Structure formats: structure tokens, C-alpha cells
Amino acid sequence: MKIWHISDTHSHHSQLFIPEGIDIVVHSGDASNYRDPYRNEPEMRAFIDWFACIPIPIKVFVPGNHDTSVEKGLVSRELIESRGINLLLTEEREISGLRFWGSPFTPKYGDWSYMKDRGTINRVWDTIPEGVDVVITHGPPFSVLDATIRRDNEYDLCGDSALFKAVKRVDPKLMCFGHVHSFRDVRNSGTRTVHGMRTVFSNASCVDDGKWGVITSHGNVLEV
Questions:
Q1: Which of 137, 146, 138 is nearest to 186 (CA)?
Q2: What is the pLDDT of residues 31-62, one digit of tens each?
Q3: 88 pLDDT band (50/70/90 cuts)?
Q4: What does DSSP say about strands 115-116 and 106-107: parallel, antiparallel, or unpaired?
Q5: What stretches of the chain show up as alpha helix (H) in DSSP?
Q6: What are phi and psi for residue 127, nearest 5 degrees?
Q7: Burial class of residue 183, CB neighbours in 10 A (0-12, 13-18, 19+)
Q8: Looking at CB atoms within 10 Å, which of 22, 143, 166, 176 has the fewest?
Q9: What's residue 93's pLDDT?
Q10: DSSP letters of 95-154?
Q11: Of all helices (H) and strands (E), which one includes residue 192?
Q12: Residue 58 has what pLDDT?
């Protein structure tokens, strides 16, 4: 099964090169931009129109913190799924013989959608069932393709340690996320494995910080 993983397209999806021979496309959030859900809604509807029409038979979407119109219900599950898109909101779904589990939540940072305090977000990850093949979250686990730069201009790793522990427990074949973009000389987009784990980790953020308006990565093609 060949999967094209994309994330953090931020309304620039039309710039993407769509690979051939893909069975499933996974978008792991931040399809849109605006914090105001009413301004966000037309962005999200434009993304859904594009996503529904690309020539890949199976589509999976997990929203991100920028996808405020989905969280507020202005763009409903019914609308998204009526377009043939599998929407995962902290839930599991079997698709083409693979078990997918997806959740939009990230540790709280600012006032955006689908955020929980780091002290309680582990309750979300505790619901990931054993035996799933693909875990999709908007944000990364700690220490895996999650480098950032703090306001004091020091480098840091900002992923979620509770999520990393949960993925280690579940041991999926693939984990898909985005949220933390590449920037300067730091490349977060791409794939990585961790010693002692079979999971392939994929950060498919398609934009770089500091280069808004331009797609800088065209996602990751993965086989499961």
C-alpha cells in the first residue's frame, strides 16, 4: 500500500506536485490559515474541493490547530465525509485492510484549535488502541523531527513526550504528523526511524517558516 503524506499546506495545496501510483493520501492538518473561523471557512472549503478531486482513491484528513472552522463546526464532518474524505477526530477507522487512528490535538501553545495542556494530553494518547497500523496526529512526538527555535533564539525540541511514549507502546508501522515546519538550515520535513522501534516517522509539513506562500516540500511517499 503506497501512501502520500502531506501536512501544513496552509491554503497553498494547489502548488503541490501529486505523485502517481498512490493508493491513499493522508493530510495531517493545517490545511488553512486564519484563526477566525469565519475567515477560515472559505479556505477550508477550497481545500476540501481540491482534496476531494485529486486522483487518489482513498483520502484521510486529520485537522490541525489552524483548521478552526472544522473545530467550530462551520465545516462539518458530514460535509467533509460526503466528499469521500475520511475524517479522523481522535478515533480509529479500518481502511483497505489497514487500521488508522488519528487525532488533531497538540499541546497548548497560543489560542488555536484542538489544543490541550501538556499535563492532560496524555489522556488522548492513552486511547490509541493496540494493533493500529498507522497513527496520524497533527503534532510530532518529542525528539523526532520536532526542532524549533525559541523566542530567545535558542534551538529546542518541542514535540510531545507523552505522545512518544504512546507510540512506543502501540508500535505502529507508520506515524504521520506535521505542525513543526522546517526553518533556516533545520529540515523537519522528511522521515526518520528510531533505534529499537519499527515505526517509520513522517513529518510532511509542506512549508518553511519564514517562506510563507511557497510550498517547500511536496510531502513524503511511504509504503505500508
A1: 146
A2: 999 999 999 999 999 999 999 999 999 999 99
A3: very high
A4: parallel
A5: 37-53, 68-71, 77-82, 122-125, 161-170
A6: -85, -5
A7: middle
A8: 143
A9: 98
A10: ETTEEEEEE--EE--SS-SSEE-TTTTHHHHTTPPTT-SEEEESSPBTTSS-EEE-TTS-
A11: strand 190-193
A12: 98
d(CA 100, CA 7): 16
The answer to whether the CB of 113 falls within 8 A of the CB of 104 is: yes
The three cell numbers of residue 66 are: 489552524
Would you say the pTM of this structure is higher than 0.90?
Answer: yes
Tens of pLDDT, residues 181-214:
998 888 999 999 999 999 999 999 999 988 889 9
Q: Is 149 exposed, middle or buried (0-12, 13-18, 19+ CB in 10 A)?
A: middle
Cell 514535540 locates to: 159
Name the one residue in this structure whose C-alpha cell is 497548548.
Answer: 108
Which of 172, 185, 193, 150 has the alpha carbon at shortest distance from 100?
172
